[in-house]
Design goal:
Layout (H helix, E strand, L loop, with lengths): L12 E2 L8 E6 L7 E6 L9 E2 L5 H15 L4 H16 L12 H29 L6 H26 L17 H9 L9 H12 L8
Antiparallel strand pairs: 1-4, 2-3
Helix pairs in contact: 1-4, 2-3, 2-4, 3-4, 4-5, 4-6
Length: 220
C-alpha cells in the first residue's frame, strides 16, 4: 500500500470477504488430508473500513501472528494420545513366541525416547504460556526454536511408533484390520506439512541464528 518504501514496510492487512466480486478460490487436495486453497484476486475492491490495524503496519501483525502460530503448531497433545494408544496396543498384542510387543527392549527404548522428548515439548510450551500470562512478548527466536524442535520431533515420534506397530500401522482408518483407529498412518502423512507451514524449518533456523544468537543474516 506504499510503493515508495521497502516491501515489508508498506504492507497493510485488509479483510476480504469470500463472497466479494473478483475473488476466486480453488481448493488443493493433498495426501496429508489437510486441504488448502489458491486464491486469485481480479480487481477486488473492499471498504477501507476492512483495514486491520494501521495502514502500512501489516508486517508487524503478520510476524506476531506467525510467531504465535509456530508455537501452537507444536502442542504436546498431538503425540500424547498416539503414544498412549500404541503403548496400550503393545501391552496386549502378542508376538509369535508368546511375548508381548512391549516386552522387547527396542520397543521400550522407542517409547521412552518419545516420552522424554514429549516432556521437554510440554515444558517449553508451558514456558511460553507463563510468559504470555505475565504480558511478556513472544521472542521470535524462541518461537522458531519450538517450531523446529516440535515439528521434527513429531516426524521422529510417528516414525518410531510405526516401527513398533509394523505393517499394522499402515492400515488406513475405516479399513479392515485398522488398529488404534488408523490414527498412526493418518498422523504420519499429515505431520510433514508442519515442517514448512508457518515458515519452513530452514527459515526458522535463520531466525534463530539472527534473533537468538545475534549472527548476521544469511545471504539471499
Amino acid at each position: 500500500t506504499d510503493p515508495d518504501v521497502k516491501k515489508h514496510k508498506g504492507i497493510s492487512m485488509i479483510i476480504v470477504p469470500t463472497g466479494v466480486k473478483g475473488l476466486k478460490v480453488e481448493p488443493i487436495k493433498n495426501m496429508g488430508g489437510l486441504n488448502t486453497n489458491i486464491t486469485f484476486y481480479d480487481d477486488v475492491r473492499v471498504p477501507v473500513g476492512n483495514l486491520v490495524g494501521e495502514e502500512n503496519k501489516g508486517w508487524g501483525l503478520i510476524t506476531n501472528q506467525l510467531n504465535h502460530e509456530r508455537v501452537t503448531l507444536c502442542s504436546s497433545g498431538i503425540v500424547e494420545r498416539q503414544l498412549e494408544d500404541v503403548t496400550e496396543w503393545s501391552k496386549v498384542t502378542l508376538l509369535a513366541d508368546g511375548r508381548r510387543v512391549i516386552d522387547q527392549d527396542w520397543v521400550q527404548i522407542n517409547l521412552a525416547r518419545i516420552h522424554a522428548r514429549l516432556e521437554f515439548l510440554r515444558l517449553i510450551n508451558w514456558k511460553v504460556a507463563s510468559d504470555a500470562t505475565q504480558g511478556l512478548p513472544l521472542d521470535p527466536a524462541y518461537a522458531s526454536s519450538i517450531k523446529v524442535f516440535g515439528t521434527e520431533f513429531y516426524l521422529e515420534a510417528f516414525r518410531l511408533l510405526m516401527e513398533i506397530m509394523g505393517t499394522s500401522a499402515t492400515v488406513k482408518a475405516g479399513s479392515p484390520g485398522a488398529v488404534v483407529r488408523g490414527r498412526i498412518e493418518a498422523r504420519t502423512r499429515s505431520m510433514h506439512i508442519l515442517t514448512f507451514g508457518g515458515g519452513t524449518n530452514e527459515m526458522q533456523r535463520d531466525l534463530i541464528a539472527l534473533f537468538g544468537l545475534n549472527m548476521p543474516p544469511s545471504p539471499r
